[in-house]
Each structure stands twice: as C-alpha cells, then as structure tokens.
C-alpha cells in the first residue's frame, strides 16, 4: 500500500521540522555547556592565582616545619644528655 504523495510530503516536512528543533535545542545545550566551561576556566585561573599568592607562605610553613623537627630532635638529644649527666652526678655523689 502506497501513501499518497501529499501525505508523504507532510510527513517529510514534519520530520525536517523535528530535526530542526532538535538541532536548535542541541545548539542551545552546547552554548550552555560552553558558558559553564568558560566559568570553570575563569574560576580555575583565579584559584591558581590565589594559590600562587599563597605559595611563599606555604614555603615558609615548610621551612618552619623543618626547623621545628630539627629543634625537636635537638631537644631529645639534650634531654638524653642531661639524663646521662644527672646519672653521672648521682654516681659521683654516692662516692
């Protein structure tokens, strides 16, 4: 069974309109995604600039942490040395 030519033309025209609407919606969606990507990129640049501004302070914190660790080790050594001196003093005191 064949469709009349007029019905076929109407169906084809409606298909093209549907495709056109789908393309318009897809285009709008891509524009939204582009705007989102631009905002993300802008925010990432801002964060990178802020991080770069903080970097000297972060470096200082790392240096301070290293110095504190070295000072802590020195304190442990001094504590151990003072305990040895105390033990020697008590030993000499008993004589």
TrEMBL record:
GO cellular component: BLOC-1 complex; BORC complex; gamma-tubulin complex
Pfam families: BLOC1_2
GO biological process: endosomal transport; lysosome localization
Superkingdom: Eukaryota
Record-linked InterPro entries: BLOC1_su2
One of the record's GO molecular function terms: gamma-tubulin binding
Protein family membership: Belongs to the BLOC1S2 family.
Protein name per its UniProtKB record: Biogenesis of lysosome-related organelles complex 1 subunit 2
Organism listed in the record: Prolemur simus (Greater bamboo lemur)
